[in-house]
Amino acid sequence: MTGEQIMFYLLGGGAVVASAAMLLPPMGRNPIHSAISLIVSFFFLAGLYALLSAHMLSVLQIIVYAGAVMVLFTFVIMLLNLGPDELQDTRITPSRIAAGILALFVFGKLATAIQLTTAGAQAVDLNDPGFAQFGTVPEVGRMMYTTFLVPFELVSVLLLVAAVGAVVLAKRSLKYVDRPEPPPAGFEHAAPESTEDAHAHGGGH
Q: For residue 185, what pLDDT is reported?
């Protein structure tokens, strides 16, 4: 087993473990802990990109996802202001069962798609001069705005919808207080009597 294979298994296993910790207890019970596990998973994925000589994707994975996107997720989690009762709710509900079944279905479809697209694929020799520009900024930019233009735009729309959904979820948990109206001109509020004053007046009577 070569050193590259050892690094692949270490990084791949670390990404799987970090992703599982994001959902399963005890880390999965707290949204902040889940976010930290997701950040760790992003770093492992960045290492996998580096093994594939996709150095630009590796750097973007850390700067954009492990940095900016996770900061946004953390702000949304704080705005939701989840209480202890909501965080410790581990009951199995029909919605959670349906979500689990849907997740398994999506995972199966992804595994099938990967198997079909990689059937008969051959390994690429990155030392070949024809692949000297693989993973560089000009090559990634050219493919992003030519071959993969439509998927790139669809992803941008998806991120916009996710941002709107995050704002809606955060706004629902906020409690707004109406601004009190000013009293009419010339009207003075009587100061409420304290408990001791009320007892003294009552005793005097």
A: 63
